[in-house]
Design a protein that fits this description.
This protein is an alpha/beta fold. The structure holds pyridoxal-5'-phosphate. The site of pyridoxal-5'-phosphate has 15 residues, from helix 4 and helix 5.
C-alpha cells in the first residue's frame, strides 16, 4: 500500500465530532428506520454519506463571503462569478442555481419533451429522476467495462461510441441532446478521457445534436486525464479542464462537489439562444437570473472555489487519500470497484454479501452494518436506489451493480480518519457470514427515482 500524500493544508478552525456508544447507535438506527438519510448527523462519527456540500472552505473563500453583493438584480457577485467561469471553463453565459439538480431542472425541464430519449454514459440519480419527470428516458451508453467492477481500466466512464450511434439512429428526432457525466458518479466515479469527449462531440455534431456535460466532478476528471492519458501528461490541470469544456455546448454543475462550496449550482452555456430559452424556468423555480436561488456571498465563494479546484497539490492529495483508503480495503479482502475513482470508494455489496438476494437490498444491509460497527455513514446505491420497472410489463428490473458508496468530503478528513474507516469496514467484512438478514420497505415514496432518500426499512431474518 502506498501511503497518502501529507495534507497540503493545516487546521485553522475545527469541528468536534463524537463517536456514539453501541447502544446509542442501535437506537439511532431504529429511530432512522434503518435509512442512512434519516440518521441525525450528531450520531455519526465519520460522515461519508456524500461529498456534496460537505467540504471545508478555504480562508480565501471565507474572505470572499464578506464581499457578497446582495442586490436583487445585477449584483457584483454575479459578475465576479461570470468572470471566473469564463476564465476557468470558457463559457460566456451562466445561470446560477441553488444546486446541481436545480440546474438539471432548468436544462432538462426547458429542453426535453415527453417521449424524448437522452443518450448519456450513465445518469446520476437526480439527473435520471429529472429525465423521468420530463417523461423522457435516459439511454445508458457507457462502455461495458463500467459493469465489471474488478476490471482495471483507466477510463471506465467513457461513452461507447457504437452504443451512442445506435441510440442516435434509433431515436433520431426524439433526442434533444446528448449528455456525458464527468466523472461518471453512478458507475463508481470513473473518469472519461479527453479523446472520448472529443469523439462524442464529433458524433454529436455529425447528427446535429448538442452535447451537455454533467460536470460536478470535472476537476477530478481533469486530474485523471493528466495521470492516465499520455497526450495530456504535460498539460496543466486547468488546461485539460478547459479542453474538456471545449467539447461541449454547455454543462450543468453541482457546485457542491469539485467547485468546493456548501451550496450552489450552475448552468453554463456557449450560445445566447440556449441561454435565453432557459431563463423563464429560472425565474419560475430559482429566483432572478443573476442570483438563481443563492445569496450574493454564495456566488463569491463559488467564484473562488472554481479557481481552487484546479490546484494540483490539493487534488493530488485528495486522490491519493481516496486511493489509500481503497488500498487498505483491498488488503483486508473487501471487494471494491477498481481502479479507485475520484471522490469515493464503492464496495461491491453483491460480492460482499453473496447470500443476500439483491431484492432484499444487500447494499443497504452493508450501510447498516458499517454504521453499527463504527458510526461511519455511507450510502447504498443498489436496488433500493436504482430499481426500474419495465414500462410494458411493470416487472421489476434490478440494476446491474449493487454498490455501497463511501464519499470523501473535500479538505475535511485526515489520513488517520481513513485508517479508522478501513478498520471499521474490514471488521464488518470479517463477520460477513454471520450477517443473515434482508430489508423490506415499510414506506416507499410515490415518486420514481427517489426511493432511497425517503424509504423506511425493516430488517427480517433470512
Ligand atoms: C451531485 C450530483 C448531481 C446533483 O447535484 P446536487 O447539487 O446534489 O443537486 C448531479 N450530477 C452529478 C454527477 C452529481 O454528482
Amino acid at each position: 500500500m502506498q501511503r497518502a500524500l501529507p495534507e497540503p493544508f493545516r487546521f485553522k478552525s475545527i469541528e468536534r465530532i463524537h463517536l456514539p456508544g453501541r447502544e446509542e447507535r442501535e437506537q439511532a438506527l431504529r429511530e432512522a428506520h434503518y435509512n442512512m438519510f434519516a440518521l441525525k448527523a450528531r450520531d455519526v462519527y465519520i460522515d461519508l454519506l456524500t461529498d456534496s456540500g460537505t467540504g471545508a472552505l478555504s480562508k480565501e473563500q471565507w474572505a470572499a463571503l464578506m464581499l457578497g453583493d446582495e442586490s436583487y438584480a445585477g449584483a457584483d457577485s454575479f459578475f465576479r462569478l461570470k468572470d471566473s467561469v469564463k476564465e476557468m471553463l470558457g463559457f460566456d453565459y451562466i445561470i446560477p442555481a441553488h444546486q446541481g439538480r436545480a440546474a438539471e431542472n432548468i436544462l432538462i425541464g426547458s429542453l426535453v419533451k415527453p417521449g424524448d430519449f437522452i443518450p448519456i454514459n450513465m445518469p446520476f440519480d437526480t439527473t435520471r429522476a429529472h429525465m423521468f419527470n420530463a417523461q423522457a428516458t435516459p439511454v445508458n451508453c457507457v462502455v461495458d467495462a463500467a459493469f465489471q467492477p474488478e476490471l482495471e481500466q483507466p477510463f471506465k466512464g467513457n461513452v461507447d461510441l457504437a452504443k451512442l450511434e445506435d441510440a442516435l439512429k434509433t431515436h433520431g428526432d426524439r433526442i434533444p441532446f446528448i449528455m456525458v457525466t464527468v466523472t461518471n458518479n453512478s458507475g463508481g466515479g470513473q473518469p472519461v478521457s479527453l479523446q472520448n469527449l472529443r469523439d462524442v462531440s464529433a458524433m454529436a455534431r455529425k447528427y446535429g445534436k448538442k452535447l451537455f456535460l454533467d460536470a460536478a466532478r470535472m476537476a477530478e476528471n481533469a486530474f485523471f486525464i493528466k495521470e492516465r492519458e499520455a497526450e495530456c501528461a504535460n498539460m496543466s490541470m486547468a488546461a485539460i479542464l478547459k479542453a474538456m469544456m471545449d467539447t461541449a455546448d454547455g454543462a450543468t454543475i453541482s457546485c457542491k462537489k469539485d467547485p468546493m462550496v456548501n451550496i450552489g449550482g450552475l448552468v453554463v452555456l456557449r450560445s445566447e439562444e440556449d441561454y435565453m430559452s432557459l431563463l423563464p424556468r429560472v425565474v419560475l423555480f430559482e429566483g432572478f437570473i443573476t442570483y438563481g436561488g443563492l445569496a450574493g456571498r454564495d456566488l463569491d465563494a463559488l467564484a473562488v472555489g472554481l479557481r481552487e479546484m484546479v490546484d494540483e497539490e490539493y487534488m493530488a492529495h485528495r486522490l491519493s487519500q481516496v486511493r489509500m483508503l481503497g488500498d487498505m480495503l483491498i488488503e483486508g479482502g473487501v471487494p471494491i470497484i477498481r481502479p479507485v475513482g475520484g471522490h469515493a470508494i464503492f464496495i461491491d455489496a453483491g460480492q460482499f454479501f453473496p447470500h443476500i438476494p439483491q431484492k432484499y437490498f444487500p447494499a443497504d444491509v452493508l450501510s447498516i452494518e458499517i454504521y453499527r460497527e463504527g458510526a461511519v455513514r455511507g450510502v447504498g446505491l443498489g436496488a433500493l436506489a436504482f430499481e426500474d420497472k419495465d414500462p410494458v410489463t411493470g416487472e421489476k428490473i434490478m440494476p446491474k451493480l449493487e454498490l455501497y458508496r463511501m464519499a470523501i468530503a473535500r479538505r475535511t478528513y485526515s489520513n488517520s480518519h481513513m485508517e479508522y474507516i478501513a478498520q471499521t469496514v474490514v471488521n464488518v467484512y470479517k463477520r460477513r457470514d454471520s450477517i443473515r438478514y434482508g430489508l423490506k420497505l415499510t414506506y416507499e415514496p410515490p415518486v420514481p427515482g427517489i426511493t432511497h432518500f425517503l424509504a423506511r426499512l425493516e430488517p427480517f431474518a433470512l
